[in-house]
UniProtKB/TrEMBL annotation:
Biological processes annotated in GO: transmembrane transport
Protein name stated in the entry: Sugar ABC transporter permease
Tagged with keyword Membrane: yes
Subcellular location field: Cell membrane
Domain of life where this protein originates: Bacteria
Chain ranges of the ABC transmembrane type-1 domain: 96-286
Alphabetical keyword list: Cell membrane, Membrane, Transmembrane, Transmembrane helix, Transport
Amino acid sequence: MPAGPGGVRGAGGKGRRARPVARAGWPARLATVLKYLSLVAASVVVLLPLGVVLLTSLKTSDELARGGGPLSMPDDWLNFANYVTAFEKGQMAEAAFNTFVILIVSITGTVFIGSAAAYAIDRFSFRFKKLVVAMFLFATLVPSITTQVTTFQVVNQLGLFNTRLAPIMLYLGTDIVAIYIFLQFIRSIPVSVDEAARMDGASALTVYWKIILPLLKPAIATVVIVKGIAVYNDFYIPFLYMPDQNLGTVSTSLFRFKGPFGAHWENISAGTILVIVPTLAIFLMLQRFIYNGLTQGAAK
């Protein structure tokens, strides 16, 4: 028996009307619209300050004096005089060298100290082990600003004030987050790997150096990127512990364009762009290592 219009033939020969395809209702469409609106708003919040800084870096002091608002267009889009001034008078080359030295030593030390501490905590049993882990956690809860007076006195008495060793030592001794990142990865490595190596005559140091450390490459990449960006952008520690003009970093060099009666915002903006570009490029190229390292550590 043929089916009627809009129906299908059933087993008993009777026509059956086809069910209409379910369509997404207005709540789903509204949720999609709100999702994209929130993404656009977040993008504007992030990109608007960068756009203002870029526009300001291309303006002259006379253009800034005339006003026109932060989003006004510069008269000359190829005006790079502010970048030359920021690089030369801000001593950006010397500041980049100081930053590079502090960055390399701090990151290298953090990787070895953090991974070794995490290996000792996870693989060895010793008295007050839980207390040590609890103290690490407690240290992350204490704001560093509350201990700056004592820290400054210790650094000064050790003769490290106004030297590159001052920020290096502070960066090495205050990164508890790196220990926890390494700890999450080491816990995912079976203890049987250590035991097999120890049965072959390997010492604990050999196991750490030749077995554990190579397996921590995702964690090392995460720590290097996160720590590197934090050290590169830090202003407080270099400004406080290295006041010498010859020991400036890329962050403190921008402060030289600020005087007691005003600031050269066009030069500061140009210097800010010079400082932002390297970190932005590195982050965009290596961001997958950050997210993969953090998510793998959390999952493991």
